Amino acid sequence: MYKELVEKKAKLAVIGLGYVGLPVALAFAKKISVIGFDINEERLNLMRKGIDPSNELSSEDFENSDITFTSSIEDLTLADFYIVAVPTPVDEKNTPDLSLVIKASQMVGKVIKQGNYVVFESTVYPGCTEEECLPIIEKISGLKNKVDFKSGYSPERINPGDKIHTLSNITKIVSGCDDEALEEISKVYELVVQAGVYKASSIKVAEAAKIVENTQRDLNIAFMNELSIVFDKLNINTFEVLEAAGTKWNFLKFQPGLVGGHCTGVDPYYLAYKAGVRVIKLN
Ligand SMILES: NC(=O)c1ccc[n+]([C@@H]2O[C@H](COP(=O)([O-])OP(=O)(O)OC[C@H]3O[C@@H](n4cnc5c(N)ncnc54)[C@H](O)[C@@H]3O)[C@@H](O)[C@H]2O)c1
């Protein structure tokens, strides 16, 4: 698949062109032929004019790109390597809302062909790709994962507003349904990730790693915020406390504040859901 993509005998499609999908699609479009698929025509029209509706990328990022922006499922059938980057929010009870990733899986099921690849980038709980998404693709396509098509999961680490940590310069975790898939998917991502890829041992490990990264950050910042409320009441400067505590070799240097990125506060609910923890909404 890698060879066909590089020789432009095959195309890569990105489904969902938001904060995550658009930078991924444009990075690949500098190297290979890309189909950028989204259901939102208004956003697609802006992208066709070289405007990022999420205000992260500049018009130069759209230049010299081999990309077709489309909402047509016919166009999607022309691809051989599918990347899914649709939103995975929570509902009003903080339960994972998989409706969009399920819709995207149904669409992939309609267009995927023998020998194709599908890689999920949407943040999900460990097990979701194999338990929820791939069975939908298999059922609709009549093809079998690992036998007729290959699959993988590669979580995204880009951070809205962050111009330092970009797709190209942060190590990307990749995983595959088998060794062959892992090798091919790694080679494909290495086209755009200069920092290189980290090959996770399984799809579940890659899914869990992403959730843990964001949950660790969310919990620690929440703890610092709680501390700052307590220390404020005690007339103690929290930053002075953290500076003093930070002189210990194993003290983790977090600070009070807001968590960056709209998914950091959402992702822990995905982990809690899979862990069977009952979430009680306080507000
Ligand atoms: N934003 C971040 O910083 C960030 C970082 C890492 C991971 N993630 C994860 O990446 C995933 C995508 O998040 P995002 O921030 O890019 O979302 P987003 O809201 O910025 O954009 C999602 C895009 O997907 C499109 N879309 C929705 N349903 C679709 C469908 N069925 N088919 C095709 N397109 C569809 C929307 O029109 C929109 O353009 C989520 O799982 C999120 O948790 C986000």
From TrEMBL:
Family annotation (NCBIfam families): NDP-sugDHase
Signal sequence extent: none
Family indicated by similarity: Belongs to the UDP-glucose/GDP-mannose dehydrogenase family.
Positions of the UDP-glucose/GDP-mannose dehydrogenase N-terminal domain: 11-185
Lineage, opening ranks: Bacteria, Pseudomonadati, Bacteroidota, Chitinophagia, Chitinophagales
InterPro entries: 6-PGluconate_DH-like_C_sf, NAD(P)-bd_dom_sf, UDP-Glc/GDP-Man, UDP-Glc/GDP-Man_DH_dimer, UDP-Glc/GDP-Man_DH_N, UDP_ManNAc/GlcNAc_DH
Ranges for domain UDP-glucose/GDP-mannose dehydrogenase dimerisation: 205-275
One matching Pfam family: UDPG_MGDP_dh_N
Organism name: Niabella ginsengisoli
Protein name: Nucleotide sugar dehydrogenase
